[in-house]
Write a structure and sequence with these properties.
This protein is of the alpha+beta class. It has eight helices and 18 strands. A hairpin with a 4-residue loop joins strand 1 and strand 2.
Length: 366
């Protein structure tokens, strides 16, 4: 099923943007871990709408409820159901657009595929669907942090043609990322980004951007060649996020312009272990983690819903002028930061559990 993700740590998300609620079922969470709503809520607060003047005006608290899978604040090893109610629903905002496929939205393709679609807010193609991902990701991040010491930090590295500079990805913290509403730790660039996004919101237009992510203290040997290489699963996870259009890990596309003598990561001794002098591989070689820091970037397109008039056609082929209603972000990347972190955590926790299972049944030499 296309709403399921993972092998040992499995999630299944549910809900549409204007139904009664959204959420996720987690299956395979290890038993005995302390878990309550406050372990999950902070990430949902970073994702929720209406958190600043630069985001959608939709007002949702996005309070999570743990329905099952825990007792006395500890996980039972049974399926965990996490649910968030939709409070600020306005399906009437979309009444005039039911017969018009919004440009660059999923209205047209969902209608072709299913012969029916959720006409208010985009349904499952809405970014509201990512609530389940972020909730499950918070649980995954807790496992990774407490059992393996893994740190995952994402930040906004560009908005439009404005790029952040001087970011130390080995020491950057989420607290530093959250010092401003753009979630860019370069204060000068963040101010320019804010001005651009605010201006575009006033104009009714939108802009894209890039979210970068670093994963530190990753155990070695994580990844399942050939078709489930670590970078392949990360790419799948990131491109499953709404509005994503590009993924690159390590040197990415810039590495295609280099020679092997420039790009190769030479081995050396680092803190008593074998490591690499450089990290053009982005912490992954042959699809398997090598113990170096993993870093990657995800490109997000400009939000498709804008308030400017657009000349398009309806489903019957009749020309129409569409001025979209509804409440939408002029730029998604500030709210995408916790989504990127969550998808990375879901990939990592599943791969780590698979590797731990393999180690448990390894044969030793006589």
């Amino acid at each position: 099923m296309s709403s399921n993700f993972g092998t040992l740590f499995r999630i299944s998300t549910f809900g549409e943007s204007h139904c009664k609620g959204v959420g996720v079922v987690i299956d395979g969470c290890p038993p005995g871990m302390r878990l309550n709503e406050q372990d999950i809520q902070p990430q949902l607060d970073r994702r929720r709408p209406g958190q600043s003047s630069l985001t959608t005006d939709r007002s949702e608290a996005d309070l999570v409820n743990i329905i099952s899978g825990t007792e006395n604040g500890r996980t039972l090893g049974t399926p965990i159901l996490l649910q968030v109610a939709n409070r600020d629903q306005r399906p009437a905002d979309y009444g005039s657009m039911q017969d018009i496929p919004r440009p660059s939205h999923a209205d047209f393709t969902y209608q072709l595929k299913y012969g029916i679609r959720a006409s208010s807010g985009g349904g499952r193609s809405s970014a509201r669907e990512t609530i389940g991902t972020v909730a499950a990701g918070a649980v995954a991040m807790k496992i990774l942090r407490e059992k393996f010491g893994v740190e995952i930090v994402a930040w906004v590295s560009s908005v439009g043609d404005i790029d952040a500079a001087g970011i130390d990805q080995e020491t950057l913290t989420s607290k530093e990322v959250d010092t401003n509403e753009i979630r860019c730790p370069d204060d000068k660039a963040a101010q320019q980004m804010r001005q651009l996004v605010a201006a575009l919101k006033d104009e009714g237009d939108s802009v894209g951007g890039i979210v970068s992510c670093v994963i530190r203290n990753v155990p070695t040997g994580i990844g399942e060649p050939t078709y489930e290489k670590l970078e392949a699963k990360l790419a799948q996870a990131m491109l499953a996020i709404p509005a994503t259009k590009g993924f690159e890990i390590g040197s990415g596309f810039a590495g295609a312009r280099q020679r092997g003598s420039q790009h190769n990561d030479l081995f050396t001794i680092k803190n008593g272990r074998i490591g690499t002098l450089t990290n053009n591989s982005g912490g992954v070689q042959g699809g398997i983690s090598n113990g170096e820091t993993i870093y990657f970037r995800v490109a997000f397109k400009p939000p498709a819903t804008i308030s400017l008039p657009q000349e398009t056609i309806d489903f019957s082929g009749k020309p129409v002028t569409l001025t979209a209603k509804g409440r939408h972000d002029p730029c998604v990347v500030p709210r995408a930061v916790p989504i990127v972190e969550s998808m990375a955590a879901l990939v990592l926790v599943d791969m780590v559990l698979r590797q731990e299972a393999r180690k448990a049944v390894q044969f030793k030499e006589d």
